[in-house]
Structure formats: structure tokens, C-alpha cells
Write a structure and sequence with these properties.
single chain; mainly alpha; Arc Repressor Mutant, subunit A; Tetracycline Repressor, domain 2; 2 domains; 10 helices; 0% strand
């Protein structure tokens, strides 16, 4: 007859117990908080952000940070992936809330924030991609696909031109962000994005849906 003692919850030995679940949830909350704090820090940093500062601002110890992200590259990769997923999948929700031309302008604002976050991670990302420590993402393809989905909806409803290549829009946006990065003038960036949207609206004699 076995003499093994039951766990405190009465579950058979070796199986997860009820007391394990809050720990898993707590760990996930810590991970999510670390990513959120790191995202904000990377978006506003002029230089390398100390990992100790991120742990402190997230309200956890540096050991907790390293348990989730053993290296700076791991943290940067997680932040970048979370931001890319958010921007790449946000088009449907915006189209549910706004007409396609306004949805595209709102989406561009989110893309601008994504690019700002990426600036604070640029050195680590480039080094990580070059060394293979960070997987190379399909960023441009996913961004262009999101733009294409909004353009298609706009062409169907007549608020956006139907003769525009989504890849061309991606290129224009990258040009806007690159040209305004050094000057850090949000007002100018906003004006340029408004001009892009204006160019994408049908005019007399232009193709629409």
C-alpha cells in the first residue's frame, strides 16, 4: 500500500494543484507588466534603458525579470512581437468603429507609436537579427497586409482609391517616419500623415470602388 501523502488540496501527488494556478496567473501578470513598462521606456529613451530600471518600474525584482527574459534580447524580442501583433491585427476593430478613410488615419497613428517604440530598441534589434539571437520578423509583410485590408474596405465603400498598391503606402509611411525621426516634431508627422490620407481619397476622375 502506498504511503505517499496527498497534496494539501487532495489532488494526487505529481499533478498540478489549485495553489499552482494563482502562481501561474501572477507570473503572467508580471510578464505582461514587464513588457508594458519596457515598451514605454523604449519609446521615450534616448539611450540604452537599464534592465534594473524596467524591473523597478514594473514593481518586481531584477531576478523576476531575468526569469521571464534571460537576456536583453529576449525582452526586446517580446516587446517588439507584442507591438507588431497589436498593430498588425488592429485594422478590423478600427473598421468596425470608423469609416475606412478615418480608420486608416487612426491606424497610421498607431503605426507611428509602434515605430517610436522600435527606435528605442533599434540597436538591440539590429544586433540580434544579425547574430540570429532574435528571429527576423515579417514586419513589412504584416504592416502592408493591414494597410491592404483597410484600402480594400475603403475602395468598396468609395472613401479610398482602388488603384493604390498597399506596398506603396507602406513605403510612404516609412518615408514620413524616417524624415521626421531626428526632428521629433509630432505636429509635422501628423500633418504629413494627413497629406497621405488626402492623397488616398478619390478625387474627380480618379478610381474608387
Amino acid at each position: 500500500m502506498s504511503t505517499s501523502k496527498p497534496t494539501p488540496t487532495g489532488a494526487p501527488a505529481g499533478l498540478p494543484t489549485v495553489t499552482d494556478r494563482p502562481l501561474r496567473a501572477h507570473a503572467q501578470r508580471n510578464r505582461d507588466k514587464l513588457i508594458a513598462v519596457a515598451r514605454a521606456a523604449f519609446a521615450t529613451a534616448d539611450d540604452t534603458v537599464p534592465l534594473e530600471n524596467i524591473a523597478r518600474d514594473a514593481g518586481v525584482g531584477i531576478g523576476t525579470l531575468y526569469r521571464h527574459f534571460p537576456t536583453r534580447e529576449a525582452l526586446v524580442e517580446a516587446v517588439y512581437a507584442a507591438e507588431l501583433d497589436a498593430i498588425a491585427t488592429s485594422a478590423p476593430a478600427l473598421l468596425d468603429q470608423l469609416p475606412p478613410d478615418l480608420a486608416l488615419r487612426a491606424w497610421m497613428g498607431r503605426y507611428e507609436a509602434f515605430v517610436a517604440t522600435k527606435r528605442g530598441m533599434a540597436d538591440t534589434l539590429r544586433a540580434g537579427w544579425a547574430s540570429g539571437k532574435i528571429a527576423t520578423p515579417t514586419t513589412r509583410e504584416r504592416i502592408t497586409a493591414a494597410i491592404g485590408a483597410i484600402l480594400t474596405k475603403g475602395a468598396d465603400e468609395g472613401s479610398l482609391r482602388a488603384d493604390v498598391d498597399p506596398e506603396d503606402v507602406t513605403t510612404m509611411l516609412l518615408g514620413v517616419f524616417l524624415s521626421t525621426a531626428a526632428s521629433d516634431t509630432p505636429e509635422r508627422t501628423g500633418r504629413l500623415l494627413d497629406l497621405v490620407i488626402d492623397a488616398l481619397r478619390p478625387k474627380d476622375g480618379q478610381v474608387s470602388g
